[in-house]
Specification:
By secondary structure, this protein is α+β, with helices and mostly antiparallel strands. The protein has a domain at about 260-380 and about 385-425: RNA polymerase II/Efflux pump adaptor protein, barrel-sandwich hybrid domain (OB fold (Dihydrolipoamide Acetyltransferase, E2P)). The chain is about 25% helix and about 25% strand. The protein has 13 helices and 18 strands. It has a six-stranded mixed sheet, with helices on both faces. Strands 13-17-14-15-16 form a five-stranded antiparallel sheet. Strand 7, helix 7 (about 200-215) and strand 8 form a beta-alpha-beta unit. The termini are far apart. The structure holds adenosine-5'-diphosphate and magnesium ion. Magnesium ion binds near residues 75 and 76.
Length: about 425
Amino acid sequence: MALESVEEMEPRAMVPGESARSRRSVEGRHGEDLPAVSLVGVSKRFGEVTAVERVDLEIADGEFFSMLGPSGSGKTTTLRLIAGFELPTTGRILLKGRDVTNLPPFERDVNTVFQDYALFPHLNVADNIGYGLVIRKVGRPERERRVQDALRMVRLEGYERRRPAQLSGGQRQRVALARALVNRPRVLLLDEPLGALDLKLREEMQIEIKAIQAEVGITFIYVTHDQEEALTMSDRIAVFDHGRIEQVGSPADVYERPATRFVAGFVGTPNLLRGDVAAAIVGARGTFTVRPEKIRLADPAATPTGDEFMAPGHIREVVYLGPDTRYHVALDAGGELVVTQQNLATSSMEALATQGRPVRLIWQRQHCLPVADGGRSVEEEPGRSRGSWHSSHWRRSPSLPVAAGPAARRTRACPPRSAPAKASSTS
Ligand SMILES: Nc1ncnc2c1ncn2[C@@H]1O[C@H](COP(=O)(O)OP(=O)(O)O)[C@@H](O)[C@H]1O
Ligand SMILES: [Mg+2]
């Protein structure tokens, strides 16, 4: 097989305007090569509200794919469009290359697991799981075998006769999952399925759902607003904002190489350097991000190597978190960076005593990434605040002449090593 055709089949996000090309690429493929789900230029409007805007997406067979974004960003609507509970205003939806845009939900080979489980309270576990098979007139022996299979998959053997009220939240969630798996859909849609569980149980279920998905090999499309959940479970993540996809990539892609200011802030601590601050530290105007764990807190006399950036400042705030400590460092050049350090030897007293001290922040140039700055940032979202991150300084600075939107993502790079590190003369 020619290399180009392998690349062409690679699941990926498409930028707006690529729809025509993707339509050709879906229709030109056959059988196993076809994506499990394709969205081609899909928009959904409810009156004045545009819930989903020109989304192009291909999800591969067997993939664990997450849709991540804040509340109201269009995740549920996208899922409901795939399920057939909503019809798109524009665009097409294909399952395994078959256009299902105008087909009702029961003619699509997908099943949905809802956040509230929607179990029948008067039916026991086995009857809840087998309900869909009864409706489809699957014979009793076959039905019992498949219910047992599903119970085994979600590790609930022996719970057949219990009623939902006699189960814990996690067990009810497993029944809901088994009830969808028993139909053996090609694609399983899950809308914030762990939202009702407490943190500990949610973390256990994340690992478990991921293991179940690997075992059954069904394509999972998983909606969540929880970045850690998406990073933990997914093969790939689509980050949504305002009905649009900001970036699609592996967990490491979206975390280590956020394409936009919004993604940098939503999937992690934004840690942005912009305008004059970027010019002073990075040696270029633009918007840059550096992850808090990539930065080293160094002595005020420390000097960076040629491969590193350096920013002097002082520790404004210390947050002791047990395994790590988070330092908010006010930079001499203006603005603030957050640094996290693993507490290898430090005690909380030692960490807290560093408050107010002058420091130099040092990080490798390769960890300083340019991001597209066209859209809004997480902090600008009404009513949203992420911890103690303050960006008011940068928000007041005039907007920068950088290209907006997806086209900007690939066009800029970090400045070369020879860039002036002006700030290094101060401490
Ligand atoms: N049936 C509907 N009628 C009107 N507006 C809707 C409807 N469903 C969703 N919306 C709006 O569409 C936007 C996206 O909603 P949704 O897809 O539920 O977001 P998310 O799941 O990411 O929180 C929101 O502004 C929401 O209020
Ligand atoms: Mg939702």
